[in-house]
Amino acid sequence: MSEPAKLPVASTFTPREVVSELDRYIVGQNKAKRAVAIALRNRWRRQNVAEDLRDEISPKNIIMVGPTGVGKTEIARRLARLAQAPFVKVEASKFTEVGYVGRDVDSIVRDLVEASVSLVRHEEEERIRTKARDLAEDRVIEVLLPEERPAVPSPEPYEMPDRAAQRANTEELRSRLRAGEFDDRYVELEVPDTSMPMVEVFSAAGLEDINLKDMFQNLPGFKNRKKRRKVKVPDALEIYTQSEAEKLIDMDSVQQEGRRRAEQTGIVFIDEIDKIVGRGRLGEGQGPDVSREGVQRDLLPLVEGSTVNTKYGPVKTDHMLFIAAGAFHIAKPADMIPELQGRFPIRVELDTLGADDFVRILTEPKNALTKQYVALLATEGVELRFTDDAVRAIAEIAAKVNMSLENIGARRLHTILERLLEEISYRAPEMGGTKVEMDGDRVRSSLADVLDSEDLSRFIL
Question: Does any domain span residue 374?
Answer without folding.
Answer: yes
